[in-house]
Amino acid sequence: MPNRWKPNVTAAAVIERDGHFLLIEEDTADGLRLNNPAGHLDPGESPVQACVREVLEETGYDFVPEALVGVYMNRFVRTRTGDDITYMRFTFCGKAAAHHGWRALDDGIVRAVWMTFDEIKATAERHRSPFVVRNIEDYLSGKRYPLDMVFTHDSVFKSPL
Questions:
Q1: How far is CA 146 from each of CA 14, 90, 91, 93, 121, rounded to the nearest angstrom?
Q2: In Å, what is the CA distance from 84 to each residue of 12, 73, 81, 131?
Q3: Distances (CA, A) of 9 to 17, 36, 95, 96, 161
Q4: Position 34 in a domain
Q5: Which top-level group of life is the source organism from (predicted)?
Q6: pLDDT of residue 161
Q7: Is residue 75 part of a domain?
Q8: How many distinct structural domains can be found in the chain?
Q9: Cα dihedral sign for 113, 117, 123, 126?
Q10: Is the pTM of this model over 0.90?
Q11: Is 41 part of any domain?
Q12: Residue 110 within a domain
């Protein structure tokens, strides 16, 4: 099967502190967009590890995952190239720990920002993902699954021959 379809796997975080949620603002081909801290799964890491890494790289905060909120899938066509992409997002919730303000954020990340849910809903036209609000709604409704629901076999962590 030369044209086998494969979704892009991402991991995202819902982090709440005092009624505010941690988002990132990033410069994209479509302008400044807001998103949950999120990014692609790298080879040799589990979805939980990817989430911890992405939160640190995009916000400067250490992330302590506590639960899986859900697994989400969407299809996206890039406005610039017409590429048809499917994303599968594992969303975790947890706490922000130490902040490393000295860290440079990932390329394209303008800033990390704490916003209320009402502020987030009011900026829907600027959301990079259709799941920004949905992930927070599911979190606020109490959706929580044990982290071990996402099992990663040891073979993932071994280097290929």
A1: 15, 13, 12, 11, 27
A2: 21, 14, 9, 18
A3: 27, 15, 22, 23, 24
A4: yes
A5: Bacteria
A6: 65
A7: yes
A8: 1
A9: positive
A10: yes
A11: yes
A12: yes
Instruction: Name the token pair of 99.
Output: 């902040």
Q: Which residue range is the domain that position 51 belongs to?
A: 8-143
In the chain, alpha helices (H): 47-59, 117-121, 131-140
pLDDT tens for the chain, residues 1 to 161: 567 888 899 999 999 999 999 999 999 888 999 999 999 999 999 999 999 999 999 999 999 999 999 999 999 887 778 888 899 999 999 999 999 999 999 999 999 999 999 999 999 999 999 999 999 999 999 999 999 999 999 999 987 76
- Tokens, residue 80: 């610039």
